[in-house]
Amino acid sequence: MNLTLKIWRQKNATSKGKFVTYKVNDISPNSSFLEMMDILNESIVLKGEDPVAFDHDCREGICGACSMYINGRPHGPDKAITTCQLHMRRFKDGETIVIEPWRARPFPVLKDLIVDRTSFDKIIQAGGYISVNTGGIPDANAIPIPKVDSDLSMDAASCIGCGACVAACKNASAMLFVSAKVSQFALLPQGKIEAAERVHNMVAEMDRLGFGNCTNTGACEAECPKEISISNIARLNREFLCSKIGAPKVKEETGGF
Amino acid sequence: MALKYSSITKKVIMALAGLFLISFLVVHLGINLLILKNDNRESFNFAAHFMVTNPVIQSMQWILFGGFILHILLGIALQIQNWMARPQRYKVEGFSHTSFFSKYMIHTGAIVFAFLILHLINFFFKAKFGDIPHIMINGQEYEDMGILVIEKFKELPYVLMYVVWLLFLGFHLDHAFHSALQSLGLNHSKYTPVAFGLSRALAILIAGGFILIPVLIYIS
């Protein structure tokens, strides 16, 4: 396959950046998208230029590092995959592919296609944990948990924090990520103890970091490589409202402007 | 100040105001449809008279204005934050699978709002402060709001303007009811698909019902 690539090149966090067009030839349709990027980078290195910087790690769809916005979609065409799971057979010979970094104020570009996703870590630090010592492996039946709840919690916990939800959302909202991280605890008895405080702190941190507001378009759900459902966002809203009504009075914090 | 609230609280207020406005639209449509009744505008004028004289309805009117203002101002505030959350836009964007109208709520909302002002000038302020012809029903004198409406909709530009306006109202409503429920945290594996259907049905029935009135008046 012969392809034309339009890739966002940016020297560092402070430089302006621009699109640069590259041509790659004789790409196997069976190669993965990242392998194609490797082939491109080899040719750039041979020319003595700076290769395209992009995040990647596991290359099997579980780390969430490979943040690329390909032809108007995070992780490119295809449902429920990361970029490393995308194959070149999904493109046509001679096609032009536009590759951009995630775009969001809380995800500043560090270099080329690499963005700083520390904002997600800050949201987790604000409350995405339980602070009791859980000790060793408990007896399976010591705390009975309905199968439905444990399944839903596991579904939410499958979030890999890749940021595709933010990248896909027209508002750059992090609601799907936050809702998954709140839901995985809210559904289990161990997480209920700090539930009110957790949801309040995580939402406040999300707002403070300058993520957008959810408008229920569902783009996040459509692009999530782990198919996290927006029913988690409804649960987050519910948890938040319950924390307002049921918990002691706390001061709300605003974000954005 | 509503801006001080968290994103979720703002959206909950937005949703509640929106649901209230939908309930207003249903009542408004119900009364409007009376004008199509072939009784010499009697029931329409009677209902219009009730709406402007009943003290409960009159006090509800202020709550309604409040609802409109909350929904519009919060909508704008949230939208500005959303634009600010992505200072640099994508070169190629928006190929993710979403419902079409959900992406353009601020735009359809702005169009609906612009025409709303015109609509208030056309009818509401006329009814409140203008000169309206009177009509006798069962020996009692009533304002003839009906004739005001009918005269307006005998002019083609007005009819076309209203049809376009109401189409945009329909587009706005397509992402209204189910979205409000989601913002309020009401999501259910069984009933959420029903809410989606209901939302579309409301959009079609409300916009379609309102459109019917100027069109039928014009062609009759």
Q: In what range is the share of β-strand residues of chain B?
A: under 5%
Order of the strands making up the biggest sheet of chain A: 2-1-5-3-4
Encode the helix/strand succession of chain A as letters.
EEHEEEEEHHHHHHHH
- Named at the architecture level, the CATH assignment of chain B is Up-down Bundle
Largest sheet of chain A: 5 strands, mixed
**CATH homologous superfamily annotation of the largest domain in chain A:** Alpha-helical ferredoxin
Name of the level-1 CATH class of chain B: Mainly Alpha
Return residue spans of chain A where pLDDT drops below 50 for at least 5 consecutive residues. none
Radius of gyration of chain B: 20 Å
| Secondary structure: number of strands of chain B | 2
Number of domain units of chain A: 2
Task: Return the string of H and E elements of chain B.
Answer: HHHHEEHHHH
| Gap from first CA to last CA of chain B | 50 Å
Report on the architecture of this protein.
Chain A has 257 residues and is of the alpha+beta class. Chain A has 2 domains: 3-110, Ubiquitin-like (UB roll) (Roll), CATH 3.10.20; 117-246, Alpha-helical ferredoxin (Fumarate Reductase Iron-sulfur Protein, Chain B, domain 2). Chain A has helices at 33-46, 118-127, 147-157, 164-168, 175-186, 189-192, 195-208, 219-223, 231-246, and strands at 3-9, 18-24, 69-70, 73-74, 96-100, 109-111, 114-115. The mean pLDDT of chain A is 94. With 220 residues, chain B is mostly helical. In chain B, 71% of the residues lie in helices and 4% in strands.
